[in-house]
Hints:
Elements: E1 18-25, E2 35-40, E3 43-50, H1 55-67, H2 78-93, E4 104-113, H3 133-138, E5 148-154, E6 158-163, E7 166-169, H4 176-182, H5 188-191, E8 204-205, E9 215-220, E10 226-230, H6 232-235, H7 240-247, H8 253-266, E11 273-280, E12 301-304
Antiparallel strand pairs: 1-11, 2-3, 2-12, 3-4, 4-5, 4-8, 5-9, 6-7, 6-10, 10-11
Helix pairs in contact: 1-2
Amino acid sequence: MADPSDPNRAVPAWAAGVVAGAATDVGRLRVVNEDGYLAVSPAFVVVDGMGGHAAGRAATQAALGVLYSLAGRRVTRVEEVLRAVAAAQEAIVDIPSHAAFLPGATVAGAVLADLEEPPAGQSAPDGRTHLPEPVAAGSPAGAGTRLTWLVFNIGDARTYLLRDGVLSQLTRDHSQVQDLIDSGYLTPEDARVDPRRNIVTRALGGGIADSAVPDLCTVPVEAGDRVLVCSDGLSDELDDDSLAVVLTAGFPPQRTADLLVAASLEEGGHDNTTAVVVDIVDVADGGRARGAAGAAGATGAAAAGS
């Protein structure tokens, strides 16, 4: 669980309508926590390191060090997030490593963005466009009309949105079992126990060629939104119904994050587990969470698990 004495802990942080909390735990079977998180408005990100030995932790620290550039600033263009993710990839690739322990990481995040132009058609740095179905369905109709959740992921870390009592997964896992689900060869229930469930098809670093391109999803912000960003250590232990029970229990974000991590430990705690919970408690006229997208946004912490 998050250590209350840790000065880097993401405590409840009020800033004109945004409050966030985060928790991480090494789990019951692992020795080192290779998860990490960023919880400084407008950026709420979870990084799940991989590679074994010390490689995973080094990858997480390198990625968070770069992604922290999104904290405490007004994000107005999708390219700002794409550049930060690309820089995180470069930082991981530059880590000295042994062929047997290639540092890598999966990542998911939700950024409160005050976009100056419509997100449709945004391209990744390599020129390819990655806009899954949720983008077309959730994108705002006009440019700069309201604050927007800019959601991104590489790998099997996830972002969920709880709105009006309904929990929706905004990200699609980049994993072998997700590909099999999409092809109709595997059910979601079977995927939860399939031995291939932890094999990812995209990652930052990790020796997976041409895979460091995020999927993007945009959703207009509404008062009452609750967003969960988590590592697979949480979603592997708790199904969507179990997540919804905790997320709708009425507790503030920090308490909710703590309860989610505790619940994952009760279910076995087979992996490192991290949860970042963000609430939008007030949206000003014009659809903007007051102050959330500026330098005076919600305070929090960037922390690599220990």
